[in-house]
Amino acid sequence: MYYDEAADAVLKTLNTSENGLSSGEAKNRLEKYGKNELKEEEKTSVVKLFLSQFKSFLIIILIAAALVSAFLGELIDAFVILFTVFLAGVLGFVQEYRAEESIKLLKALTSPEALVIRDGKEVKIPSSLLVPGDILVLQAGDRIPADARLLEALSLEIDESSLTGESIPVGKCTDIFPTETPQPDRKNMVYTGTSVTYGRGKAVVTATGMNTAFGKLAGLLGEIERERTPLQEKLDQFGRWLGTATLIVVAFVAILGIFQGFDPFEMFLWGVALAVAAIPEALPAVVTVGLALGVRRMVKRHALIRRLPSVETLGSTNIICTDKTGTLTQNKMTVEKVYVNGTLLSVTGEGYKPAGDFFNGDKPVSEDVHLHRLLIAGALCNDAGLFEENGVWDITGDPTEGALVVVAAKEGIWKTALEEKHRRKGEVPFSSERKMMTTLNFSEDGTYAYSKGAPEVILSSCTKIFLGGREEELTSERKQEILNVVNDMANLTLRVMGFAYRKVSEDTLAEDAEKEMVFAGLMGMRDLPREEVKTAIATCTSAGIRTVMITGDHKTTAFAIAKELGIFREGDLVLTGVELDALDNKEFEEIVEKVSVYARVYPEHKLRVVEALKKKGYIVAMTGDGVNDAPALKAADMGIAMGITGTDVSKEASSMILTDDNFASIVSAVEEGRNILKNIKNFIAYGLTCHIGLVLIVLVGVLAWQTLPVIAVQILWINLITDGLPPMALSLEAPDRGLMKQKPAKAKEGLVSKRMIIASLGLGLLIAIQSLGVLYWALGNGTPLPKIQTLIFTLVVVSLMFNAFNWRSERYSVFSLGIFTNKSLIYAVLSTILLQLAAIYVPFMQVAFRTVPLSLSDWAMIIPLASTTLIAMEFTKYLEWRRHR
């Protein structure tokens, strides 16, 4: 259907036109056909997600223990255990639900867009809002968002491997095909999930969502699997190691307690409670929330992470390979120099405003036939547009092409009027491999081919030159003279483009016109570096990250800009694509670490650079925007696509998208990535202190005094309130001021460093010493056991709240950070303290947790003792600061 009908008939059937649907009609059709989305498998319901919190083996044992307690008549114990388990389940559910919602939001942010004609104008809309009858505008690099019938196809080629398995791109056309034509041979149709590799076109949407060819392939449908991050895998390993060690200790103490006369069931219950407290089951959920919240912060800094595992990679990145145009520069081109008729002219004017003059030295130039021919070539071999809105001039399309339209308008040559007289009848689109573009334009004077591209490529297609008002032979001497001018312009950091033309017969194909052309001249345009980039590159250098520039520009231009920005340093190398091709892999790997600039390169060179650097052990980030950049983006440890100029294919191959195409945003993302990892490691260290402290307190209490310093329900309560809000608040901590002066984390580095383990052990030991000191003193004074247990119960909670401030930063004092700068942590600590006060002062909770009220003198002992947890760490940090200073 549709492929066997003429384009006009298809438009009529779908009740649309080449001007597209109106916004109102599109809205009506969206209600009728639904969103352009594939149905996913049913997600885990809220109820199932909640119930999944109670699947843990230890939690099941705890629930069984509560039932046994109830059977033995210990109803209060049974209720408290079940209530605590329920609250722990609620906390775990909230964390996992927030993680799911955050990931869902990230998926929404990365949803693809489509360029369509609505209300007669080209607009970008989310692909999910496409409806049958919409007119798609297709360009190289676009991912096809719906099934559609082609209305226009100019050198259009589509990669349909995702649908047919055929790796060779399929040439498309607008011809009508017989009804019996099989799907792969319907060359006037394009299908969801395929991509444009070359050319451009227009198509009318015929099917969306589940009605597409892709949607009918049931085997390709289903839920996008939630990725487990390497960090979560490390957490699982860490949890298993800690859990195994704890279970061994707990089992030993429980058996010892039974031999020393404790009630076997009490010791069993206590052992399970301590095991639950010691094994960090909630950590993976907390980490996912921490990652997701951090990624959402990145969005505000113009970096959109597509996959959570990429955050960990960001923290380890030590080389950034970046494009120049638009990433290091503003991507706002202005033509400053024109070379015609053997003369170099200057052009005045700023931005996209079509106001300016041409000068030969101090003399103004106007109505020059050579200049006129060159500007016509630049305006016709061009897909950009120039428009004015509210007194402001702007362009549509590529900035380089836009600059050519603007400079032509300065001479009174308006592209829209020009195209009416010189109708385009064919073209060979620009590609990074060819480095040139050609159009065929028909006028009353005949058919002309116009080409633009890299000067050396244009020169190679020319045999003549327009000089002195006539076409003359382009000798090797004249070619060298032109190349010398190219080099001089490149030294001025101008991007240089060559132009040519040729009169051809009406039946000539655009592909055949690119030979024996006439050289028309050169244009040199400037794209100023972004102001913030130089600072960002300096930040990278201090952070132990090398910046490498990769560009299609002339070697001299690339070198000059790299030196200006601080990318090129003394002793570095500049390599062109031709020079790179001349090196074998071994030779290239020997010098790759010295190369800071690659000029006149092709996309396949990017892949070679990535592979060579990875072999040397570097963690490589690579930027890209074109369809041919996809292999390099996939191969890089961190593929970074451009959000503004990037194609759909490059975005899909990437790990991260820059929403402003700015290099400085990469550096911001690296900083945020490092900070996320830092915060995760810090709240793991915080939790480790708690687990070590509790195990030591009970172990020594049973061995030395045959006394349980805290009972099972108190252990469960400590675990619940201290592993809940404080770790979440620590994940919101801002970056340390010296974070970007540290070297990148090693990819194979453990979850927590030896330094952090030693600190956690030391603090856990200190909390144990505090509590055991109180136990020794209280037993000596004949204090009742419930009062002793209440004192230790409260002391541990308060000590851990002081400890939470320790782990805002592994290196810096909480006082230098500012006590109130992380308000979330203040609220988390206050909430935890209030819950603890409720446990010891609210009557029914006193019964449940077997606590007694504490006096002011008790608090006068608890607070100073607990504060030593913070004081000890602050003193350690001070000594380290003195040593480093």
From TrEMBL:
Protein known as: P-type Ca(2+) transporter
Task: Choose one Gene Ontology CC annotation of this protein and give it.
Answer: endomembrane system
| Subcellular compartments | Endomembrane system
Ranges of residues in domain Cation-transporting P-type ATPase N-terminal: 1-74
- Using the UniProt record, give the first listed, main subcellular location: membrane
Q: Which GO terms describe its molecular function?
A: ATP binding; ATP hydrolysis activity; P-type calcium transporter activity
Q: Which Pfam families match?
A: Cation_ATPase (PF13246), Cation_ATPase_C (PF00689), Cation_ATPase_N (PF00690), E1-E2_ATPase (PF00122)
Q: Membrane-spanning residues where? A: 49-72, 78-97, 241-262, 268-295, 683-705, 711-735, 756-779, 785-805, 825-844, 856-875
Q: What is its EC number?
A: 7.2.2.10
Q: Which NCBIfam families match?
A: ATPase-IIA2_Ca, ATPase_P-type
Question: InterPro entries attached here?
Answer: ATPase_P-typ_cation-transptr_C (IPR006068), ATPase_P-typ_cation-transptr_N (IPR004014), ATPase_P-typ_cyto_dom_N (IPR023299), ATPase_P-typ_P_site (IPR018303), ATPase_P-typ_TM_dom_sf (IPR023298), ATPase_P-typ_transduc_dom_A_sf (IPR008250), ATPase_P-type_domA (IPR059000), HAD-like_sf (IPR036412)
Q: How does it sit in the membrane?
A: Multi-pass membrane protein
Stored PROSITE patterns: ATPASE_E1_E2
